[in-house]
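Lab notebook, bench 4. The sequencing result for the construct came back, and we need a structural model before the next group meeting so we can plan mutations. Quick request posted to the team channel:

Model the 3D structure of this chain.
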Amino acid sequence: MGGAMAVTLVSLAYPTMLGLTKVTTAQDRVIANTQWGPLTEQDRDFVVKVRAAGLWEYPVGQIGLQKGTTKAVITASQHLVDGHAALDTTCRKIAPLLNITLPNLPSPQQQGFVGQLKSESGKKFDTDFANILRMTHGSIFNTVAKIRSTTKNSLVRALADQANDTVLDHIKVMEATGLVDFDQTLFNQTTPPKLPDSDLTPPPPPAGQPQVVLTPPPNATSTPADINGLTGGGSGASPGASPAPTAS
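Done. Here's the predicted structure in token form:
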């Protein structure tokens, strides 16, 4: 087995209708049979979603380290950078094995969150930081649980296990800021705006563009999922083995 990829169907195209809440009407449709189990549309889109989440939350964490005015906001920012760097490593390890194309940019909606927080400062930044991140993590938490309970693919399960721990940790550190307006945040979480699919879909990377790498902080405490037992010790994917731009 080694780490050789065993995808028996056609190469997986970049998901063209990937939304944060809905992908297609047949998310459980098997799109590839791999040596790690069948891969469904929702499995593939989950890997892309985790990658896209890191592409905006990691830089927001960096912004929070610079702009946060309380110790709790600084701590939450550290957890964002640390957790998403580790998740990103796992995504970049398993994506080539499952023949999944990863984005290099988050969705337009997610880019809008980054732009908003970049433009703010002081208590306004702290408050919006905590509420936006609590809302988005609360929204994805249910998705993680669904994937973990339904996927038949062992690599996707490993990512879901890691994502479950990371998302719950991030929910807790946002709540620990004392700034979360639960009534408003939960309303926004359960009644999201009806945006066009194009706003919810990470753009596919241009052909030949180097893969963006979310670099772990020097004092990293989060670790990527250990998939060596699943891939025979050699995944064939070595994130960072070739020069790649670092997200900042």
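The first helix runs from residue 41 to 67.
Will bring this to the meeting.
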